[in-house]
Every structure is written in structure tokens, then in C-alpha cells.
Write a structure and sequence with these properties.
CATH superfamily: Glycosidases
Mean pLDDT: 90
Radius of gyration: 21 Å
Strand order of the largest sheet: 7-6-5-2-1-10
Helix content: 40-55%
Largest sheet: 6 strands, parallel
CATH topology: TIM Barrel
Number of strands: 10
Distance between the termini: 12 Å
CATH architecture: Alpha-Beta Barrel
């Protein structure tokens, strides 16, 4: 069925519902009719393209991180979960990726507890003007129910967030793997009890490992690189930075073994406990290191692919920018971006093609479909008078085409697909790029 013919919001909602029919379901749904006996699997069909047997057969994703909660208040961009979900459907998305706040949910004294999320009006994502109370479990259930009713899939992830009542959650779990597992188990079990696991496409246990992970410092200690007190912004500056000269793995043998053991412990645990769910770790760096481990445990290979490389970063000065919603002068940066694109644009395009080819090869090697939910341009961009969205829109549109050529299962137009960015009003562009990928 061609999605181009879908002209109304109702058409989109109905089509999205059909697209995910038969998706992996959670333990609660399996027990819906105990008298029916064991559930029988669908007949398997072998194909040269594993995506053709998956539901949905293509994934168009909007990354809503923690914003769905931090801006869920009167006047906020996510005040009405139903309208937000309708907006996704209208723009041709069939999936949304969110922070399920498992580290906070794992600490709650009861499912009815209200927590306080600190205000951060200058935040790049998920800004909130003041401290706000949230009934976090109830709001998660409401959000999950709203997107389910519209036939949308959800990817659950964790940015390691905390709250005022339970601060420093990452520090509390830094060497507590069992505690980390129990946080996710409680979160998934709550959703299962409300019949809200059936539309979970997969679970990303630890967003962009190891940058947001409770285990980041322990990993860094193995290289004698202390990172205590380093902000997430500082950690993200490492993305796209590469050793010059001889090619080698960035992690030392002790770090390689640490990560191998961690992944080999966590993924089988959750796959055994929730056999009808998919699990993975998303990555934005250290691709070669993780691939070298040869693990065939990822149910999905989620890689975040950016324009960053020494050629781009050296010319633009991206790493040294102040990156927030404050008042800054970005004219020099904008001029430098233009210079980089004019001078080495074709080289940057070839670099991105190589990254997509690498992702496809790794995907086929471990038989896991490849998805990118944050990608393409610089990992930071902003609505600002000095910053041009025109080149970025064109670049990302072409990158989505590259992803289709390299047989990605899922893509995102960019990691700015939120109601609080001005680009959200360009419904036609979102429809165009998403429908093109869905037909690929």
C-alpha cells in the first residue's frame, strides 16, 4: 500500500496501526487467554532481506528523549499527549523513541509517587522553565497509551536521568549491576501490567553507551582516565574525535573485556526474562571496538551517525561552541560551516556513505537490523538567527536516501523532530522524507 495516497489524519492513523500489527508483544499479552494453550509462532519466511519479515517493515522515528515528560505541563510542547501523537502520524512517523526514566522509576517508594524535575530553560532538549512535579509512572502510562491508540511503536531508552527526590542516580548505580537490572525490570513490568509492551519496538538499555551510563566512570577508570564531575556536554564533545595517525582501538584490553562482559551479562538476562521484547545498546562512538567483540546478542543494531570528523570539526570549531539556548554569537561558526561544505563537502558525503556501508556490513555480520534514531548533521543545532537550517535539511534528506540504499531498517530525519523546534511546522517536508523511506 502506497502511503502517498493517505490524505487525512484518520488515514494515517489507520495505516500506522496496520503497519505494526503483529509486532513483538510483552509477557502480559501472552497470558491474556490461558485456555487457548501455548501461543504458536507465525510461519517463518526466509528472505535475503531480514527487514521484510519484521513489523513494521520500515521504521521512521522521532527521538523525543526526556522532553515528552519535562514539557508535559500546561503550555508545554507536550501538554497533550494525544495531540503530540497525532502530530507524529500526520508527519509520517510510525515510531517514537523516549527516555522511560528507568533509574528514577526503580527508586520510587510507590508507583503513585510524585517527583520533581529541575527546571532548565536553556537546555538544548527537554527545557523546562521552572522546577515541576511529575507523577512519573502515571504520565509514562498515559503517554504509552496515547501512542498505542494511534498505532505507533515506541523505542524505550535511558539517558540516566534523576530528579530532586532521588539525585545522582547514575552514581548510586555505578557499580550495582543488579540494581540497574531491577530498575529496568520494574519499568517494563509496570508497562506490562497495563498491557503496554505490545507496541514496544525494542529497548535500548543505555543510551549512547557509555556517555550517559552509570558504568561510564568505572570503564574510564580502567584506562586511568578519571571523569568524575565531567558533564554530559563535555562527554559528548568526544563524539567524532579520532586519533590521528595509526589506526588502533580506542579502548584498552581491560576496557574491551569490561564492556564485553557487561553486554554479555545484561542482554541475555533481559532476553530471557522478556522473550517477546528486543534489546540492544545504542552507540554513537566506539563502533570498531564493539564490533571487534563479535557479539551476536544485539536484537537491533542502533548506531548514531553524524557529520563529525576531523575535517568538519577542525574547520567549524564545533567542539569549542557554547551549546545552549542562551544568547550567543554564532556568525563565525555559520561562516565556518559554509566554508567546510564548500571546500570538502563531497568528502564529507563520502565519509557518510562509508559510515552507512560500515553499519550495513556489521548488521549483516551479526544478523541484526540496523536503525539510527539520532543522526546526520552536527549533533547540536538550534533555532537561532545566525544558524541556517537550509543546508542541514538538504543534507539530512540525502542521508535518509543513503540509509535506504544501505538497507537500514529504521531512520530519523534528524534529532530535532520535536514540537518545540520551528521545523516541526513543516509537515510537508516530514511527510515527504518519511514516506520516501517507508516505500524503500
Amino acid at each position: 500500500m502506497s502511503t502517498i495516497a493517505l490524505s487525512t489524519r484518520r488515514d494515517f492513523i489507520q495505516a500506522a496501526g496496520l503497519a505494526i500489527a503483529g509486532a513483538a508483544i510483552g509477557p502480559s499479552a501472552a497470558a491474556a487467554d490461558p485456555s487457548a494453550g501455548p501461543r504458536r509462532p507465525r510461519p517463518l519466511k526466509f528472505s535475503a532481506d531480514m527487514r521484510e519479515g519484521l513489523n513494521p517493515r520500515r521504521v521512521t522515528n522521532a527521538m523525543w528523549d526526556f522532553s515528552w515528560l519535562t514539557q508535559h505541563y500546561a503550555g508545554g510542547a507536550f501538554a497533550d499527549f494525544g495531540k503530540a501523537a497525532d502530530d507524529l502520524v500526520e508527519r509520517g512517523f510510525n515510531t517514537v523513541r523516549i527516555d522511560a526514566f528507568p533509574l528514577v522509576i526503580g527508586a520510587l517508594k510507590s508507583d503513585d509517587e510524585t517527583i520533581t524535575v529541575a527546571g532548565n530553560p536553556l537546555a538544548n532538549w527537554g527545557m523546562s522553565d521552572v522546577d515541576r512535579p511529575h507523577a512519573i509512572v502515571r504520565e509514562l502510562v498515559e503517554f504509552m497509551r496515547a501512542v498505542k491508540e494511534r498505532g505507533l511503536s515506541v523505542i524505550l531508552s535511558s539517558w540516566g536521568k534523576d530528579c530532586k527526590e532521588y539525585p545522582d542516580r547514575k552514581l548510586a548505580l555505578a557499580k550495582d549491576r543488579d540494581g540497574f537490572r531491577k530498575c529496568w525490570e520494574r519499568t517494563l513490568d509496570i508497562l506490562g501490567s497495563h498491557d503496554l509492551l505490545g507496541h514496544v519496538l525494542y529497548v535500548d538499555l543505555d543510551q549512547e553507551f557509555p556517555f550517559f551510563s552509570p558504568f561510564k566512570d568505572e570503564l574510564n577508570e580502567l584506562a586511568k582516565q578519571k571523569s568524575a564531575g565531567r558533564s554530559v556536554e563535555a562527554a559528548m564533545e568526544e563524539v567524532g574525535q579520532f586519533e590521528q595517525g595509526l589506526t588502533r582501538l580506542a579502548w584498552k584490553p581491560a576496557q574491551m573485556e569490561y564492556v564485553r562482559r557487561l553486554f554479555s551479562e545484561m542482554l541475555p538476562h533481559f532476553q530471557s526474562r522478556y522473550p517477546r521484547q528486543r534489546f540492544t545498546y545504542s552507540l554513537t562512538s566506539f563502533f570498531k571496538e564493539v564490533r571487534a567483540m563479535g557479539l551476536q546478542l544485539f536484537d537491533v543494531l542502533e548506531l548514531h551517525l553524524w557529520i563529525h570528523s576531523p575535517r568538519f570539526d577542525n574547520r567549524t570549531g564545533f567542539q569549542k561552541l557554547t551549546k545552549d539556548r542562551g544568547e550567543h554569537d554564532y556568525r563565525d561558526y555559520a561562516d565556518r560551516v559554509a566554508a567546510a561544505l564548500d571546500t570538502v563537502g563531497p568528502i564529507l558525503a563520502k565519509e557518510m556513505e562509508n559510515k552507512c556501508a560500515f553499519a550495513r556490513a556489521w548488521s549483516e555480520e551479526i544478523a541484526a537490523p540496523v536503525v539510527t534514531t539520532e543522526a546526520w548533521g552536527p549533533w547540536w543545532h538550534m533555532d537561532h538567527p545566525d544558524l541556517d537550517w537550509g543546508w542541514l535539511r538538504d543534507w539530512c534528506e540525502q542521508c535518509m536516501g543513503l540509509a535506504a540504499e544501505h538497507k537500514f531498517w529504521g531512520v530519523t530525519p534528524w534529532n530535532y523532530s520535536h514540537p518545540y523546534w520551528k521545523n516541526w511546522s513543516d509537515v510537508a517536508w516530514y511527510r515527504k522524507v518519511n514516506e520516501r523511506f517507508l516505500r524503500s
